[in-house]
Amino acid sequence: MASLVSSPHASSLPFSSTHRLHHTPNLPTLSFSRPIKTKPNHSLRCSVSIEKEVPETERPFTFLRDSDDSTHSPSSSPTSVRARFETMIRAAQDSVCEAIEAVEGGPKFREDVWSRPGGGGGISRVLQDGNVFEKAGVNVSVVYGVMPPEAYRAAKGSASSDQKPGPVPFFAAGVSSVLHPKNPFAPTLHFNYRYFETDAPKDVPGAPRQWWFGGGTDFTPAYIFEDDVKHFHSIQKQACDKFDPSFYPRFKKWCDDYFYIKHRDERRGLGGIFFDDLNDYDQEMLLAFSTECANSVVPAYIPIVEKRKDMEFTEQHKAWQQLRRGRYVEFNLVYDRGTTFGLKTGGRIESILVSLPLSARWEYDHKPEEGTEEWKLLDACINPKEWI
């Protein structure tokens, strides 16, 4: 999943008490003090220390440092963008988990809460082998750290004129989720909404703080039901149109381009919306837009799962779903910027890789027969369509 530094997420208050808490093992401190190879004949020397995670037995009111928002307390409303974004993503985590548990009709999410001594932390929730979902992960994190320049490039996507020359202090917060149903006629869903800030490195005092928003929601079925795809895309368009009519076509194309598996020459799924490095609009507007998109996840997805979860299927249908999940794994491990960034900054590995399905399949030189339902899905992944 496009998770950001261990799976960015959080939830609003009051918190639900239905989730079971489990301890997570401490991770060792990571440091990089030797040259890191970048390009042939070039190396980059940096020293970056990542604080080890500390398991917590209960959720804190906030993962923010005290200095970030002195008014952020249970008795007052948050004022900073950091604090309000944390409140939003924790609310999104709660609402999606509650909706998934309602569909499951019994199984509950396992929950791990963790923190870091210097500030920040996260809540990871995973449901495995449920009645409906093979694996569902909904994570939030609020992370402070210092990243090497190559991780900054991974976060930004490419080198740019604002590139920092040395280790870069950063703040990242987000909610990230991947939902893999058991039934091959029920689609996989991914969503991720994040906020990122970088401070000036020590060797460039006084440089301006930079910020941007990113995220999206995308739809990955194994079989095409046009009504389902149109419903999903319609909800994305409704969320976008509340802010700018150019957003949906722009972010829909961006999604098709981003989730492109270059070595297969096909998309991971049937798209949705995706945006990143977004800071050319008013900050308040982008915060409200991210909130609207996150709130659209449940109405866009849950009605489709309810409709498809009990459909009868064959071993052939299941095998095709597993082949498509193989594509999902390939994209996430080879191309996904969030995964790359989390691995480069020493993020929580279980949260970063929670997007991977429990099972997937690879067959040598598999090609669906032209005209079949499987072929129609592959054709739509190779040639993106306008669904609405």
How would you describe this structure in keywords?
388 residues, two-stranded antiparallel ribbon, globular, 9-stranded mixed sheet, disordered N terminus, alpha+beta, single chain, 15 strands
Overview of this protein structure:
This protein is α+β, with helices and mostly antiparallel strands. It has ten helices and 15 strands. The chain has helices at 81-104, 149-156, 226-241, 247-258, 283-295, 297-308, 315-334, 337-344, 349-352, 373-382; strands at 20-21, 30-32, 35-37, 43-45, 48-50, 54-56, 110-115, 120-128, 133-147, 168-181, 188-198, 210-220, 260-261, 266-267, 272-278. Strands 1, 6, 7, 8, 9, 10, 11, 12 and 15 form a nine-stranded mixed beta sheet that branches. A two-stranded antiparallel sheet has the order 2-5. It has a two-stranded antiparallel ribbon with strand order 3-4. Helix 1 (81-104) runs parallel beside helix 5 and helix 1 (81-104) packs parallel to helix 6. The longest helix is centred in the first third of the chain and has 24 residues, at 81-104. Residues 1-49 have low confidence and may be disordered.
